[in-house]
From TrEMBL:
Protein name: Helix-turn-helix domain-containing protein
Organism: Sphingoaurantiacus capsulatus
Top-level division of the source organism's lineage: Bacteria
InterPro entries: Cro/C1-type_HTH (IPR001387), Lambda_DNA-bd_dom_sf (IPR010982)
Domain HTH cro/C1-type, first and last residues per copy: 20-62
Lineage: Bacteria, Pseudomonadati, Pseudomonadota, Alphaproteobacteria, Sphingomonadales
């Protein structure tokens, strides 16, 4: 998937533990762990906003677009 979750990096920069973030924003530690590992296919904007508010960061600090090599060429051919 071309979207990379960098939440673990931001947690380390802010010296925040996952369980503290989960409790503060009202999600389970399991769901936060799935989000950190990138094993989710979506995230609610409300959850993303709560994470950004707690960590004092922007969504771009947590999410990164990293397309696979040749992906633009593949899209051009398909179109």
């Amino acid at each position: 998937m071309p979207i990379v979750v960098r939440l673990d990096v931001m947690l380390a920069k802010r010296k925040v533990r996952s369980n503290a973030l989960a409790a503060a924003i009202g999600i389970t530690q399991t769901n936060l762990s799935l989000l950190k590992s990138g094993k989710v296919t979506g995230v609610r904007f409300e959850t993303l906003a709560a994470i950004c508010d707690y960590l004092d960061c922007q969504p771009g600090d947590i999410l990164e677009y990293a397309p696979a090599e040749g992906s633009r060429e593949d899209l051009k051919r398909a179109g």
